[in-house]
Amino acid sequence: MTAQLSHIDEDGNARMVDVGHKAQTQRVAIAETRVVLSRETFDLLAANALPKGDALTTAKIAGILAAKRTFELIPMCHPLPLSYVDVRFTPVEETATIVIEAEARTAGQTGVEMEAFTAAQVAALTVYDMCKAVQKDILITGCRLLHKSGGKSGTYDVR
Amino acid sequence: MTAQLSHIDEDGNARMVDVGHKAQTQRVAIAETRVVLSRETFDLLAANALPKGDALTTAKIAGILAAKRTFELIPMCHPLPLSYVDVRFTPVEETATIVIEAEARTAGQTGVEMEAFTAAQVAALTVYDMCKAVQKDILITGCRLLHKSGGKSGTYDVR
Amino acid sequence: MTAQLSHIDEDGNARMVDVGHKAQTQRVAIAETRVVLSRETFDLLAANALPKGDALTTAKIAGILAAKRTFELIPMCHPLPLSYVDVRFTPVEETATIVIEAEARTAGQTGVEMEAFTAAQVAALTVYDMCKAVQKDILITGCRLLHKSGGKSGTYDVR
Amino acid sequence: MTAQLSHIDEDGNARMVDVGHKAQTQRVAIAETRVVLSRETFDLLAANALPKGDALTTAKIAGILAAKRTFELIPMCHPLPLSYVDVRFTPVEETATIVIEAEARTAGQTGVEMEAFTAAQVAALTVYDMCKAVQKDILITGCRLLHKSGGKSGTYDVR
Amino acid sequence: MTAQLSHIDEDGNARMVDVGHKAQTQRVAIAETRVVLSRETFDLLAANALPKGDALTTAKIAGILAAKRTFELIPMCHPLPLSYVDVRFTPVEETATIVIEAEARTAGQTGVEMEAFTAAQVAALTVYDMCKAVQKDILITGCRLLHKSGGKSGTYDVR
Amino acid sequence: MTAQLSHIDEDGNARMVDVGHKAQTQRVAIAETRVVLSRETFDLLAANALPKGDALTTAKIAGILAAKRTFELIPMCHPLPLSYVDVRFTPVEETATIVIEAEARTAGQTGVEMEAFTAAQVAALTVYDMCKAVQKDILITGCRLLHKSGGKSGTYDVR
């Protein structure tokens, strides 16, 4: 951790890292999150019969749009020229769960984890919003990094 | 669920609910989420010794700002004149977890759950961002509605 | 036009109208626009076989989101607490045209034409974006106000 | 169209194209749109005597600002480092029409048509807003691509 | 100061004030700032001969747009339904200074000082931007509240 | 000034400079501004005893976030991939003044003065907002460029 500690602002204030000296490389990050529904809500969503309509398409678009605005939401994130964002959904029948996987890519000087996370979590919030008229105790859970490649710290993959 | 079904767009398309006929009442919502850290990261955060500095203050401000922009992020949400937003943190030593509680209030025609959720999840993402240089396998989990009051559906409280 | 002329800034500079003295009434506006495609593009869109996928759903969500941000885009528009926005599509087989109708509602001190127009035109731009890989000479045309009600100037309707 | 079809998401969902492998070249796009006014409105605009003031200057600035935010408005657009945006107006006396031409330039991996279109249409919406106190049946029409150069598909020009 | 002290968060963290209990009254605020130019720059601006063109019109529109987005920029500000924003310029020949006066109005539960200040300072920054190609040592100075009325604390006026 | 004059739009309209032909170099800019408080307000801020809490941390985050959105606020600014933004505060006891220094860096085709200025002035506005419950006659003053390097015009430094 010596490298990181050398970065510490002496008084503990929040700070943006200067990435100007970092190499510009291809960066990929994939994040996952899960929306746990009741059986009834899951069935309505699967049948596209929710009062507010098509939850997953709405969530996909919301997630992609949010990824592009990560730098506005997360104070110490850098603006990045994203070359690709995707949000994918896997409805898991047995557990009435929507598994959301979001991917971001760029050629840049810093990683795109936060863009992938923002896409995943805003997609999850949108699923919640589309379902909340029929269920209040929805759970958004298990949000974690699945994959990251392209930076100095090498490839991270837990899939 | 008859009430909701009467809202369904015949072809399942996403749609915004017209709230123009709803009563303008005092609305409160509280959402919770959790950031599970490693012991080492938790200790660095607690000692305000993270490379990027003060994680919780940065996360609080990010969460409050994000709540005010919920309508830009969640497609079918209405713009609301929020009268109050707060984001509170409880570091839980035993489990190396930061419990985040976000609250939103308005006098309006629709609930503020999404604003509370957005504040909580963007605060959690900011904690992740402030800690990610020292730990990659951070988990954001257990995001759920704790309290909601003020609408036609009455008070919901699981605390 | 005496009423309007009394508002004129003596030097012709752009100005925002003060709506503080206007009555708060229910306001509705509906705007229309048209995207004229080639036969081939129209058929791909109708078959949901465009390279970038589902054009109309994406356009609907983009239009609704844009309506909520009209005050950020149009300099002299007031921020309004929209109670409802909708974007509807009618594909017209004979002319290979997508007719877009956007509606906005609020209870406020000024009309919602610009919100309806912004929804319609951003939806049209999104249809263009979703189709542009297969056709470059798409036309967006015939954008006009269909209906406006709720203000001092009475109801306007050309449908 | 084989190239495009190979991009198709198997289930027709909306998707962002990955531009990470595309060459970074100089890109230019020019779009046109038209605002058709009544004789009376046209004369007021030409005399800079509209109630809300200088319509064209306001529209120019609104169009330039909007071009820079295209990636926030059009879901599948990529954020681009625009090097130039311009919006030009040609008032056509005979037809009481304002012809708007918008141009965008970048050195990037994808075209700038959507930025040019967004500038043109937001400028047109702003002209509408500045004139709507004196005329309700304004038409925004004839929006099309005039020129595009710099990408793999070669130069397109209809001027 | 007893009233304010009762609001203090026990640990000194930043917080948003809950304005939900405040009376909804007509609120006005006027702020002033000054851009001090060199004689040469002032003359170019006055002759509308700056390389980037009409500085004051651009600054006026930028200031009005920024006022509407104050709640996005200033973390603890509330979103407000502004009914009026204006930015006025007085070029002072003797001192080569542009005096900027910005006014904001709303009917709301909290004051509009920050909206007036944001309009004034973003207008000043825009004047700087329009002039910076010809002068680097421009000064933005003397930014202060001129007038405030409508809240519990009564009218404040230093004009 | 011949170079600039050659840029002038013949009719004095505002215009964005085309930076597409400029060299991509490392750019740094530092701007300064000052918030002059009363003795009482300064002491409350220094003791972190203001009603709205920690003014400087809130201002630092607001300034950094605002720098990243400069291109949305200042009409003729280009979007830039900022590699670093910082906002630093020096409380000056004798004059009850907070000196704010903001720095921006990028590798790009145009300077980052406006980003540094926007960070400094939004930080100052945030300090004002955090203090305004206890003092109304706060002054924001002395905003100027301290340093600029990396462009064709060479290094400028007044420190």
Automatic annotation (TrEMBL), chains A, B, C, D, E, F:
Q: Tell me the residue numbers annotated for binding substrate.
A: M76, C77, H78, M114, E115
State what protein this is by name: Cyclic pyranopterin monophosphate synthase
**What's an example GO BP annotation here?**
Mo-molybdopterin cofactor biosynthetic process
Keyword annotations from UniProtKB, A to Z = Lyase, Molybdenum cofactor biosynthesis
Pathway membership, UniProt? Cofactor biosynthesis; molybdopterin biosynthesis
Which organism does this sequence originate in?
Desulfobaculum xiamenense
- EC no. given is 4.6.1.17
Question: What family is reported?
Answer: Belongs to the MoaC family.
Q: Which Pfam families match?
A: MoaC
What the entry lists under NCBIfam families is as follows: moaC (TIGR00581), PRK09364.1 (NF006870)
